[in-house]
Protein backbone atom coordinates (compact mmCIF):
# COMPACT_ATOMS: atom_id res chain seq x y z
CA UNK A 1 0.00 0.00 0.00
CA UNK A 2 1.35 3.42 -0.98
CA UNK A 3 0.23 6.40 1.04
CA UNK A 4 -0.34 9.75 -0.68
CA UNK A 5 -0.05 12.53 1.90
CA UNK A 6 -1.33 15.98 0.93
CA UNK A 7 0.16 18.76 3.06
CA UNK A 8 -2.39 21.57 3.20
CA UNK A 9 -1.55 25.21 3.92
CA UNK A 10 -3.91 28.17 4.46
CA UNK A 11 -5.21 29.62 1.21
CA UNK A 12 -4.88 26.29 -0.61
CA UNK A 13 -6.31 26.12 -4.13
CA UNK A 14 -8.99 23.45 -4.30
CA UNK A 15 -8.07 22.20 -7.78
CA UNK A 16 -4.38 21.96 -6.84
CA UNK A 17 -5.54 19.42 -4.26
CA UNK A 18 -8.59 17.87 -5.92
CA UNK A 19 -6.96 17.08 -9.29
CA UNK A 20 -4.15 14.85 -8.00
CA UNK A 21 -6.38 13.47 -5.24
CA UNK A 22 -8.94 12.37 -7.84
CA UNK A 23 -6.24 10.62 -9.89
CA UNK A 24 -5.00 8.53 -6.97
CA UNK A 25 -8.52 7.97 -5.65
CA UNK A 26 -9.63 6.74 -9.07
CA UNK A 27 -6.61 4.43 -9.26
CA UNK A 28 -7.48 3.07 -5.81
CA UNK A 29 -11.05 2.46 -6.98
CA UNK A 30 -9.65 0.42 -9.85
CA UNK A 31 -7.83 -1.82 -7.37
CA UNK A 32 -4.41 -0.19 -7.14
CA UNK A 33 -2.94 0.17 -3.64
CA UNK A 34 -3.29 3.82 -2.66
CA UNK A 35 -4.44 5.39 0.60
CA UNK A 36 -4.90 9.16 0.82
CA UNK A 37 -4.15 11.31 3.88
CA UNK A 38 -4.55 15.06 4.40
CA UNK A 39 -2.25 16.71 6.93
CA UNK A 40 -1.96 20.32 8.06
CA UNK A 41 -0.55 22.30 10.93
CA UNK A 42 -4.09 23.22 11.95
CA UNK A 43 -7.25 21.07 11.99
CA UNK A 44 -9.24 23.41 9.72
CA UNK A 45 -7.66 24.93 6.64
CA UNK A 46 -9.28 27.83 4.74
CA UNK A 47 -9.13 27.47 0.97
CA UNK A 48 -8.68 30.22 -1.62
CA UNK A 49 -12.16 29.43 -2.93
CA UNK A 50 -13.83 29.86 0.46
CA UNK A 51 -14.47 26.21 1.34
CA UNK A 52 -12.85 25.22 4.65
CA UNK A 53 -11.07 21.87 4.71
CA UNK A 54 -10.59 19.50 7.62
CA UNK A 55 -7.20 17.81 7.98
CA UNK A 56 -5.27 15.71 10.45
CA UNK A 57 -2.41 17.27 12.37
CA UNK A 58 -0.34 14.15 13.07
CA UNK A 59 1.87 12.82 10.29
CA UNK A 60 1.44 9.09 9.54
CA UNK A 61 4.41 6.76 9.49
CA UNK A 62 5.93 6.98 6.03
CA UNK A 63 7.96 4.59 3.89
CA UNK A 64 10.01 5.12 0.73
CA UNK A 65 6.98 3.99 -1.31
CA UNK A 66 4.92 6.95 -0.11
CA UNK A 67 4.44 10.40 -1.65
CA UNK A 68 4.11 13.80 0.03
CA UNK A 69 2.43 16.37 -2.22
CA UNK A 70 2.14 20.09 -1.43
CA UNK A 71 -0.67 21.84 -3.34
CA UNK A 72 -0.38 25.55 -4.09
CA UNK A 73 -2.08 28.42 -2.29
CA UNK A 74 -3.26 31.99 -2.41
CA UNK A 75 -3.61 34.42 0.49
CA UNK A 76 -6.42 36.90 1.12
CA UNK A 77 -10.16 36.56 1.52
CA UNK A 78 -11.15 36.82 -2.15
CA UNK A 79 -12.40 33.85 -4.13
CA UNK A 80 -11.87 32.79 -7.71
CA UNK A 81 -8.66 33.71 -9.48
CA UNK A 82 -8.57 37.39 -8.70
CA UNK A 83 -6.49 39.03 -6.03
CA UNK A 84 -7.84 38.55 -2.54
CA UNK A 85 -8.37 41.44 -0.16
CA UNK A 86 -7.14 40.93 3.40
CA UNK A 87 -8.89 42.43 6.37
CA UNK A 88 -6.53 45.41 6.42
CA UNK A 89 -7.62 46.40 2.92
CA UNK A 90 -4.26 45.77 1.28
CA UNK A 91 -3.92 43.71 -1.88
CA UNK A 92 -2.65 40.21 -1.37
CA UNK A 93 -0.33 38.47 -3.79
CA UNK A 94 -0.86 35.14 -5.45
CA UNK A 95 0.64 32.81 -8.02
CA UNK A 96 -2.34 31.99 -10.18
CA UNK A 97 -4.08 35.23 -11.02
CA UNK A 98 -3.50 37.56 -13.92
CA UNK A 99 -1.43 40.22 -12.18
CA UNK A 100 1.93 38.44 -12.24
CA UNK A 101 2.32 39.19 -8.52
CA UNK A 102 4.28 36.69 -6.41
CA UNK A 103 2.55 34.28 -4.12
CA UNK A 104 2.75 35.29 -0.50
CA UNK A 105 4.50 32.83 1.77
CA UNK A 106 2.09 31.22 4.24
CA UNK A 107 3.61 30.19 7.53
CA UNK A 108 5.00 26.66 7.44
CA UNK A 109 6.58 25.41 10.62
CA UNK A 110 10.06 24.01 10.92
CA UNK A 111 8.68 20.60 11.88
CA UNK A 112 6.75 20.23 8.62
CA UNK A 113 9.75 21.30 6.54
CA UNK A 114 11.84 18.72 8.41
CA UNK A 115 9.29 16.02 7.52
CA UNK A 116 9.72 16.90 3.85
CA UNK A 117 13.51 16.72 4.15
CA UNK A 118 13.50 13.49 6.13
CA UNK A 119 11.06 11.76 3.79
CA UNK A 120 13.18 12.56 0.75
CA UNK A 121 16.41 11.59 2.53
CA UNK A 122 14.83 8.22 3.37
CA UNK A 123 14.16 7.51 -0.30
CA UNK A 124 10.63 8.90 -0.54
CA UNK A 125 9.17 11.19 -3.20
CA UNK A 126 8.00 14.76 -2.65
CA UNK A 127 5.93 16.76 -5.11
CA UNK A 128 4.25 20.13 -5.49
CA UNK A 129 1.64 21.92 -7.55
CA UNK A 130 1.93 25.62 -8.41
CA UNK A 131 3.25 27.73 -5.50
CA UNK A 132 3.68 24.56 -3.45
CA UNK A 133 7.18 24.46 -4.96
CA UNK A 134 8.06 27.25 -2.55
CA UNK A 135 7.55 24.85 0.37
CA UNK A 136 9.98 22.39 -1.20
CA UNK A 137 12.42 25.26 -1.68
CA UNK A 138 12.12 26.27 1.96
CA UNK A 139 12.90 22.67 2.88
CA UNK A 140 16.09 22.90 0.81
CA UNK A 141 14.91 20.30 -1.70
CA UNK A 142 15.18 22.47 -4.82
CA UNK A 143 18.87 23.31 -4.50
CA UNK A 144 20.66 22.09 -7.63
CA UNK A 145 17.49 20.46 -8.96
CA UNK A 146 15.24 21.20 -11.92
CA UNK A 147 11.83 22.49 -10.92
CA UNK A 148 8.90 24.46 -12.26
CA UNK A 149 5.78 26.28 -11.12
CA UNK A 150 2.96 28.42 -12.50
CA UNK A 151 4.25 30.84 -15.14
CA UNK A 152 3.25 33.86 -13.02
CA UNK A 153 5.42 32.59 -10.13
CA UNK A 154 8.54 31.40 -11.97
CA UNK A 155 10.57 34.60 -11.51
CA UNK A 156 9.68 34.80 -7.84
CA UNK A 157 10.56 31.15 -7.24
CA UNK A 158 13.97 31.71 -8.86
CA UNK A 159 14.52 34.82 -6.74
CA UNK A 160 13.60 33.12 -3.47
CA UNK A 161 15.59 29.98 -4.17
CA UNK A 162 18.64 30.91 -6.27
CA UNK A 163 20.04 27.39 -5.99
CA UNK A 164 17.05 25.98 -7.86
CA UNK A 165 17.13 25.37 -11.62
CA UNK A 166 13.74 26.81 -12.60
CA UNK A 167 12.52 25.35 -15.91
CA UNK A 168 10.05 27.72 -17.52
CA UNK A 169 6.82 26.99 -19.35
CA UNK A 170 6.65 23.22 -18.85
CA UNK A 171 3.92 21.20 -17.17
CA UNK A 172 6.08 19.33 -14.69
CA UNK A 173 9.65 18.33 -13.90
CA UNK A 174 11.12 15.23 -12.27
CA UNK A 175 14.54 15.39 -10.62
CA UNK A 176 15.77 12.86 -8.05
CA UNK A 177 12.34 12.14 -6.52
CA UNK A 178 11.49 15.86 -6.38
CA UNK A 179 8.57 16.50 -8.71
CA UNK A 180 7.14 19.96 -9.34
CA UNK A 181 4.29 21.02 -11.57
CA UNK A 182 2.80 24.20 -12.94
CA UNK A 183 -0.46 25.73 -11.79
CA UNK A 184 -3.84 24.25 -11.06
CA UNK A 185 -4.83 21.57 -13.64
CA UNK A 186 -1.24 20.45 -14.27
CA UNK A 187 -1.40 18.59 -10.96
CA UNK A 188 -3.55 16.05 -12.82
CA UNK A 189 -0.79 15.56 -15.39
CA UNK A 190 1.77 15.10 -12.61
CA UNK A 191 -0.35 12.50 -10.83
CA UNK A 192 -1.11 10.60 -14.06
CA UNK A 193 2.63 10.54 -14.77
CA UNK A 194 3.29 8.98 -11.37
CA UNK A 195 0.59 6.36 -11.95
CA UNK A 196 2.12 5.59 -15.36
CA UNK A 197 5.60 5.20 -13.84
CA UNK A 198 4.34 2.83 -11.16
CA UNK A 199 1.77 0.83 -13.10
CA UNK A 200 2.33 1.52 -16.79
CA UNK A 201 0.79 3.93 -19.30
CA UNK A 202 -2.25 1.72 -19.89
CA UNK A 203 -3.32 2.10 -16.27
CA UNK A 204 -2.77 5.86 -16.42
CA UNK A 205 -4.83 6.00 -19.61
CA UNK A 206 -7.62 4.07 -17.90
CA UNK A 207 -7.60 6.51 -14.98
CA UNK A 208 -7.66 9.44 -17.42
CA UNK A 209 -10.62 7.93 -19.28
CA UNK A 210 -12.54 7.44 -16.03
CA UNK A 211 -11.85 11.09 -15.16
CA UNK A 212 -12.91 12.19 -18.68
CA UNK A 213 -9.47 13.77 -19.18
CA UNK A 214 -9.16 14.55 -22.89
CA UNK A 215 -5.46 13.69 -23.15
CA UNK A 216 -2.57 12.84 -20.87
CA UNK A 217 0.15 15.45 -21.36
CA UNK A 218 3.89 14.97 -20.96
CA UNK A 219 5.95 17.10 -18.61
CA UNK A 220 7.85 18.97 -21.32
CA UNK A 221 4.69 20.28 -22.98
CA UNK A 222 3.98 24.04 -22.65
CA UNK A 223 1.79 25.31 -19.83
CA UNK A 224 -0.61 27.07 -22.20
CA UNK A 225 -1.73 25.79 -25.60
CA UNK A 226 -1.59 27.75 -28.84
CA UNK A 227 -5.37 28.00 -28.64
CA UNK A 228 -5.00 29.99 -25.41
CA UNK A 229 -1.82 31.95 -26.16
CA UNK A 230 -3.47 33.85 -29.00
CA UNK A 231 -6.80 34.58 -27.31
CA UNK A 232 -5.98 37.65 -25.19
CA UNK A 233 -7.32 40.15 -27.76
CA UNK A 234 -10.79 41.75 -27.88
CA UNK A 235 -11.68 41.35 -31.56
CA UNK A 236 -14.93 39.38 -31.91
CA UNK A 237 -14.42 38.75 -35.62
CA UNK A 238 -11.03 37.18 -34.97
CA UNK A 239 -12.40 35.12 -32.06
CA UNK A 240 -15.12 33.73 -34.33
CA UNK A 241 -12.52 32.89 -36.95
CA UNK A 242 -10.36 31.18 -34.34
CA UNK A 243 -13.37 29.14 -33.21
CA UNK A 244 -13.72 27.82 -36.75
CA UNK A 245 -10.02 27.03 -37.10
CA UNK A 246 -9.79 25.47 -33.62
CA UNK A 247 -12.64 23.07 -34.42
CA UNK A 248 -11.38 22.09 -37.90
CA UNK A 249 -7.62 22.77 -38.00
CA UNK A 250 -6.89 19.36 -39.57
CA UNK A 251 -9.08 20.22 -42.60
CA UNK A 252 -8.35 22.51 -45.57
CA UNK A 253 -9.63 25.97 -44.58
CA UNK A 254 -9.38 28.41 -47.50
CA UNK A 255 -9.17 32.07 -46.54
CA UNK A 256 -12.15 32.72 -48.80
CA UNK A 257 -14.34 30.36 -46.79
CA UNK A 258 -13.19 31.74 -43.44
CA UNK A 259 -13.83 35.32 -44.51
CA UNK A 260 -17.29 34.46 -45.82
CA UNK A 261 -18.15 32.63 -42.59
CA UNK A 262 -17.42 35.70 -40.44
CA UNK A 263 -18.80 38.23 -42.92
CA UNK A 264 -15.72 40.21 -43.95
CA UNK A 265 -13.42 40.36 -46.95
CA UNK A 266 -10.31 38.24 -47.18
CA UNK A 267 -8.12 41.31 -46.94
CA UNK A 268 -9.96 42.63 -43.89
CA UNK A 269 -9.81 39.25 -42.14
CA UNK A 270 -6.07 38.93 -42.73
CA UNK A 271 -5.50 42.46 -41.41
CA UNK A 272 -7.68 42.00 -38.31
CA UNK A 273 -6.32 38.53 -37.55
CA UNK A 274 -2.68 39.56 -37.86
CA UNK A 275 -3.20 42.66 -35.73
CA UNK A 276 -4.96 40.66 -32.98
CA UNK A 277 -2.76 37.55 -32.85
CA UNK A 278 0.49 38.38 -34.65
CA UNK A 279 -0.22 35.52 -37.08
CA UNK A 280 -2.06 35.10 -40.34
CA UNK A 281 -5.00 32.67 -40.30
CA UNK A 282 -2.87 30.11 -42.18
CA UNK A 283 0.05 30.47 -39.79
CA UNK A 284 -2.34 30.09 -36.82
CA UNK A 285 -3.74 26.89 -38.34
CA UNK A 286 -0.21 25.58 -38.90
CA UNK A 287 0.65 26.40 -35.27
CA UNK A 288 -2.29 24.31 -34.04
CA UNK A 289 -1.33 21.46 -36.35
CA UNK A 290 2.29 21.56 -35.21
CA UNK A 291 1.39 21.58 -31.52
CA UNK A 292 -0.97 18.64 -31.91
CA UNK A 293 1.58 16.74 -34.00
CA UNK A 294 4.29 17.36 -31.40
CA UNK A 295 1.99 15.92 -28.75
CA UNK A 296 1.32 12.82 -30.86
CA UNK A 297 5.03 12.28 -31.54
CA UNK A 298 5.76 12.72 -27.83
CA UNK A 299 3.30 9.90 -27.13
CA UNK A 300 4.88 7.47 -29.60
CA UNK A 301 3.42 8.30 -33.01
CA UNK A 302 5.71 8.37 -36.05
CA UNK A 303 6.25 11.67 -37.87
CA UNK A 304 4.28 10.40 -40.86
CA UNK A 305 1.34 9.25 -38.75
CA UNK A 306 1.30 12.49 -36.75
CA UNK A 307 1.52 14.60 -39.91
CA UNK A 308 -1.41 12.85 -41.56
CA UNK A 309 -3.46 12.99 -38.36
CA UNK A 310 -3.27 16.80 -38.27
CA UNK A 311 -3.97 17.31 -41.97
CA UNK A 312 -0.59 17.32 -43.73
CA UNK A 313 -0.22 15.10 -46.80
CA UNK A 314 3.09 13.79 -45.51
CA UNK A 315 5.80 14.59 -42.97
CA UNK A 316 7.76 17.08 -45.09
CA UNK A 317 5.79 20.16 -44.01
CA UNK A 318 5.80 18.95 -40.40
CA UNK A 319 9.59 18.63 -40.50
CA UNK A 320 9.92 22.15 -41.90
CA UNK A 321 7.66 23.61 -39.23
CA UNK A 322 9.50 21.75 -36.47
CA UNK A 323 12.85 23.02 -37.76
CA UNK A 324 11.51 26.57 -37.97
CA UNK A 325 10.31 26.56 -34.35
CA UNK A 326 13.13 24.43 -32.91
From TrEMBL:
It comes from the Bacteria. Keywords: Transcription, Transcription regulation. It comes from Streptomyces paludis. Coiled coil: none annotated. SUPFAM superfamilies: Class I glutamine amidotransferase-like, Homeodomain-like. It holds the Pfam family HTH_18. InterPro entries: Class_I_gatase-like, DJ-1/PfpI, Homeodomain-like_sf, HTH_AraC, INH-QAR. The lineage of its organism: Bacteria, Bacillati, Actinomycetota, Actinomycetes, Kitasatosporales. This is Helix-turn-helix domain-containing protein. Residues 74-103 are annotated as: Disordered.
Amino acid sequence: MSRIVFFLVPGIHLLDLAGPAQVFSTAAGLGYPYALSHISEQPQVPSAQGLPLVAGVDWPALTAEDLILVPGWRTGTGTGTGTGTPADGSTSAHADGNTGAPAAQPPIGAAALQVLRDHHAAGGTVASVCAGADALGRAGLLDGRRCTTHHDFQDELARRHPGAVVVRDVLFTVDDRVITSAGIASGIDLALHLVAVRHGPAVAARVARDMVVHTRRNGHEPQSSAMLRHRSHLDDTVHRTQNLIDARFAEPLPLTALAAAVGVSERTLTRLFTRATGLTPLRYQQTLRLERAQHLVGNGATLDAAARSVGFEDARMLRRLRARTG
